[in-house]
Amino acid sequence: MPELPEVENARAVIARTAVGRRIVAVDDHDTWVCRPHPPGQIRDALVDRELTVAHRRGKSMWCETSEGGPILGIHLGMSGKIVVADPDGSEVDGGDYWERGRPKGDYRYSRFALTFADGGRLMLIDPRRLGRIRLDPPIELLGPDATVITPEQFRAMLGRGTAPIKARLLDQHAVAGIGNLLADDILWRAKVHPGRPVDELTPDEVTALLRATRYAIRTSVRDGGVHTLGSLKLRGPDGRCPRDGTPAAHGIYGGRSTWWCPLEQKEGPR
After folding, report:
1. How many CB atoms lie within 10 A of CB 54?
2. Beta strands 60-65 and 51-57: pairing type?
3. Which residues contact 46 (CB under 8 A, 6 or more apart)?
4. Which residues pair with residue 114 across a beta bridge?
5. Contact between 242 and 234 (Cβ < 8 Å)
6. Is the separation of the CB atoms in 166 and 254 below 8 Å?
């Protein structure tokens, strides 16, 4: 499922291949993906404009448009990816790695598309229809991006309330960009139990969590996505800790399926 590394990959694809191309048509027929906009509203706002800059914060993307036009918000959801296809048959895609087996030219799950003056298209391919396209999204509601959060912001985020640390890491208002797989990897690297209340974390644990956050994001962006994370060997009924071989423990934290090493990630302080 797309998390911060996949969304950054998709943003880079848009910045590299779609910025600066004039939009001549928009397919915004999917009223669920394009909610709350009725069909034609996004089209009327974007035709004859260009995407000028592609931004990302956490798992959300947005593009500025030319001539003071609206912001185009793009959220990949859990199964979406961006595909930019050109008239010569070439295409570049970014986003969900599970969809990398999609045959070239298979656009049956296109939920939104921009057509450019040169005949190329930018599409949101989303089999499960969990993505979102909207104009002028409320970006200001997101917390600081996980790639650039400062130590002070990180400590402040973890110092409020009694929520389990796994739930707090997943809270996009607290820190934007950490999904389920990244959160498990961060906790595994920091050797912190996912159920530890945030107000009980020691200074050393907070430092370890910040270091693990930076490392997990940096390496997964570099290596191509969350599917490269070392902690994935924990997941599943036969999962084991990659460090010590201990059978993995499983539970639900923050409403999400969670895996951890019961030997190294104990419920009390490290």
Report:
1. 21
2. antiparallel
3. 23, 26, 65, 69, 70, 72, 114
4. 26, 122
5. yes
6. yes
State which fold the 4-140 domain adopts: N-terminal domain of MutM-like DNA repair proteins (3.20.190)
Has this prediction a pTM greater than 0.70? yes
Is the CB of residue 256 less than 8 Å from the CB of residue 177?
A: no
The token pair at 225 is 């996505």
pLDDT in tens, 210-264: 999 999 999 998 888 888 888 889 999 999 999 999 999 999 998 999 999 999 9
CATH number belonging to domain 143-260? 1.10.8.50
The domain limits of the chain are: 4-140, 143-260
Omega prior to 127 cis, within 30 of 0: no
SS3 percent helix, strand, coil of the chain, rounded to 5, is 30, 25, 45
